[in-house]
Design a protein that fits this description.
Distance between the termini: 14 Å
Helix content: 40-55%
Radius of gyration: 18 Å
Strand order of the largest sheet: 1-2
Strand content: 5-15%
Shape: elongated
Largest sheet: 2 strands, antiparallel
Low-confidence stretches: none
Structural class: alpha+beta
Length: 115
């Protein structure tokens, strides 16, 4: 009795640096939320994440990147905030482009799966 099974190749990517994980989808979402909200505090709230954890992730990314991805803005009348640097914007674009290539490859390979 032969069944027609359907298999799918699933992949998750992250980028590592000598000191460990550098960028994955969670950090990309954090960067996107910082860009959207203009603050690490609001980005953390949006993701139901503790501010301290979000801040540590930002510090870690900034330390491991060639150039900082997020810059803090000093408080003034409206308070401080944060924004992505050019490197931060590029990190998001590069990550999604890489992910798309890998997903496309996995989809093509899926068509040839037979066991």
């Amino acid at each position: 009795m032969e069944e027609n099974k359907k298999y799918i190749i699933a992949v998750r990517i992250w980028i590592e640096e000598a000191d460990g994980p550098f960028l994955g989808i969670g950090k990309i979402w954090l960067l996107e939320n910082i860009a959207k909200t203009g603050s690490i505090t609001n980005a953390a709230k949006e993701m139901k994440m503790a501010y301290r954890q979000a801040w540590q992730l930002v510090e870690e990314m900034n330390k491991r990147a060639e150039k900082p991805l997020v810059e803090k803005l000093l408080g003034g009348k409206g308070g401080g905030g944060a924004r992505l640097t050019e490197a931060g914007e590029r990190a998001i674009q590069t990550f999604y482009a890489l992910e798309k290539k890998i997903q496309d490859f996995a989809r093509k390979e899926t068509l040839n799966l037979k066991f």
